[in-house]
Write a structure and sequence with these properties.
Blueprint (H helix, E strand, L loop, with lengths): L1 E5 L4 H13 L4 E6 L11 H6 L4 E5 L5 H10 L2 E4 L6 H6 L2 H22 L6 E7 L25 H20 L3 E6 L1 E3 L8 H11 L3 E4 L5 E6 H14 L5 E4 L4 E3 H16 L3 H5 L2 E4 L14 H7 L7 H14 L1 H7 L2 H11 L3
Parallel strand pairs: 1-2, 1-4, 2-3, 4-5, 5-6, 6-10, 7-9, 8-12
Antiparallel strand pairs: 9-11
Helix pairs in contact: 1-8, 3-5, 5-6, 7-9, 7-12, 9-12
This protein binds nicotinamide-adenine-dinucleotide and 2'deoxy-thymidine-5'-diphospho-alpha-D-glucose (DAU).
């Protein structure tokens, strides 16, 4: 397949492109990415070298209808990952979230409609999130299923729900072959160190404080990014158009439990004193409107497409701590402004 991946220089998109090229030797991938602070071509340096004939990066904005139209027309499938993805940033300023996550999604859908009509051989995957369902109480025995009403609580999740609703509306109204996946919290290599797991690993290594929002008893359902990539690939190829598929790891942990597990791993790998590492924990002001708990029922994806997660949480966290320890250069690079400006100039207009 010729696949247009949007946001392929981000955390999940870059892992997804690596997965596609390694597992589907006939696939060709065009990666459309604006290279915001979260998008780094360094995430795909190996891919650029190993799959030069089958991979191309174009720097550009998914809101740019003229740029997007021919790229979508030439593609047999679109895997739409591009987004503003960090909840805290959406609380400080929601503008870019509405623009990229709502308007950018609609721009891609419109381009697909214009080029493909209802051609059922094409595929448009909208990568949504479990946050569109809202929040569960800690003692609620239920997990989110696909028919759960959408009740997003943060500007981030509201903007993702906007894209999610538009994607399904383009299927319902125009017959566009749209698939929607709603995934739980991902972790693994190449995650930008503003999200909980890489932030805590890097802060612990540097001896910086470990900021736990509120009481730290908020619960997330963790999934290794490789398991997400396998699921997204499967849904893109074999999912039923118009359907929504939940993706989740069945690994509910409180933030404090997760943090203690990470600190144990850091102590084991570096020989640092676990007591000193734990002493870095600081309970700080809570995130406004903080969702208490997410929990995903991924039964439909298992029953219809035979997917189940393969990476256990203990194994995945150990591998992730090891990865961040071994990739100090990457951590430096992605947090350096000069580096990002360099790549912006390099790919501008391509
Ligand atoms: P990320 O922030 O790491 O990457 C986002 C990418 O999108 C970056 O490369 C960025 O440059 C690009 N981008 C942003 N605005 C753009 C624009 N206007 N035009 C083109 N490119 C643009 O995000 P991520 O964590 O990899 O998440 C990828 C997708 O998966 C998002 O849609 C997110 O909502 C969804 N998701 C993420 C998680 C998670 O745990 N990270 C879980 C479920 C769903
Ligand atoms: O559930 C899927 C979502 O998971 C995705 O749609 C989002 O793109 C992704 O960012 C993630 O959202 P969260 O808000 O759950 O992830 P984050 O890593 O920001 O926070 C995880 C939990 O840790 C959350 O309860 C807030 C808390 N936290 C986070 C940070 C950054 C802290 O306590 N301290 C911190 O410094």
């Amino acid at each position: 397949m010729r696949i247009l991946v949007t946001g392929g220089c981000g955390f999940i998109g870059s892992n997804f492109i690596r997965h596609l090229l390694a597992n589907h030797p006939a696939d060709e991938v065009v990666n459309l990415d604006l290279l915001t602070y979260a998008g780094n071509p360094a995430n795909l340096a190996d891919v650029q070298a190993d799959y030069a004939g089958r991979y191309r990066l174009i720097r550009g904005d998914i809101c740019d209808a003229e740029l997007v139209a021919p790229l979508v027309a030439e593609a047999e499938a679109v895997a739409h990952f591009a987004a503003e993805s960090h909840v805290d940033r959406s609380i400080s300023d929601a503008g870019a979230f509405v623009r990229t996550n709502v308007l950018g999604t609609q721009t891609l859908l419109q381009a697909a409609l214009a080029a493909w009509g209802g051609d059922a051989s094409r595929r448009f995957l909208y990568v949504s999130t479990d946050e569109v369902y809202g929040a569960l109480a800690l003692d609620d025995p239920r997990r989110f299923r696909e028919d759960w009403p959408l009740d997003p609580k943060s500007p981030y999740s509201a903007s993702k729900a906007g894209g999610d609703l538009l994607a399904r509306a383009y299927h319902h109204t125009h017959g566009l072959p749209v698939l929607v996946s709603r995934c739980s919290n991902n972790y693994g290599p190449y995650q930008f160190p503003e999200k909980l797991i890489p932030l805590m690993i890097l802060n612990a290594l540097a001896g910086r404080e470990l900021p736990v929002y509120g009481d730290g008893l908020y619960v997330r359902d963790w999934l290794h990014v490789e398991d997400h990539c396998r699921a997204a690939d499967l849904i893109l190829r074999a999912g039923r158009p118009g359907e929504v598929y939940n993706i989740g790891g069945g690994n509910e942990r409180s933030n404090l439990d997760l943090l203690h597990a990470l600190l144990e791993l850091v102590a084991q790998r570096t020989g640092r004193d676990i007591g000193q590492l734990r002493g870095l924990i600081r309970h700080v002001k809570d995130r406004p409107g903080h969702d208490r708990r997410y929990a995903i029922d991924a039964g439909k994806l298992g029953a219809e497409l035979g997917w189940s997660p393969r990476v256990g949480l203990d194994q995945g966290l150990a591998a992730t701590v090891a990865w961040y320890l071994e990739h100090g250069d990457w951590c430096q690079a992605v947090t350096s402004g000069a580096y990002r400006d360099y790549y912006r100039r390099m790919y501008d207009g391509r």
